[in-house]
Amino acid sequence: MPLNHMQHFLVQSDDVEKTKNWYVDVLGLKEGYTPDFKFPVYWLYIGDQDVLHLTQGGKDVSKNRIAYVGQQSQETQGTGVIDHIAFHASDLHGMIRHFEQRNIQFTERQVDSQGLYQLFLFDPNGIKIELNFANAEAKGRKPQVMASDLKDEGQGASSRSH
C-alpha cells in the first residue's frame, strides 16, 4: 500500500480566473487538460504533470463541488485556501484494509474519465488527504460518488477540457 509521489494541491479562490492567470503568468505553470467534474476547476501543469488544481472557494461553492470533494473551509485568503493534499498510491484493497484495521474513516470517489479511484480521509489536524489509485485496482468496489454522475451546473471552467 505504498504512496508513490506527491500529486497535487487544491487551492480554493474567490476569483479562479485571476488566480489561474497569476500562476500561468507569474510562475509559468501551464493550463492543461482538466477532467469534467461539472464544477469550476482548472488544472495547472509543470511539464506533463498537473501539480496545482484551482477551484471556487468561499460560501457559495457549487453543489457538485460539495458532493464530490466536500469543503472544510470557506477561506479564500491565507493558508486556509488549501483544500487537500493528494498522493498517487497503489494497492487500494491493502490500503482500505489498513484503514479499517485502524478505524480510519474514508470516502470513495471515482473519476472514470481519468481512470482514477480515490479515497479521501482526514489527518489529525483536519487536513483532507486524497489518495489516487488506478481504476483497475477498484474491481469489486463502488464509490459513494462518481464524477460522471454529477449534473452539469454550467459554470464557466466547470466542464471545459483543456
UniProtKB/TrEMBL annotation:
It comes from Pseudorhodoplanes sinuspersici. It comes from the Bacteria. It holds the Pfam family Glyoxalase. InterPro entries: Glyas_Bleomycin-R_OHBP_Dase, Glyas_Fos-R_dOase_dom, VOC_core. SUPFAM superfamilies: Glyoxalase/Bleomycin resistance protein/Dihydroxybiphenyl dioxygenase. This is Uncharacterized protein. Coiled coil: none annotated.
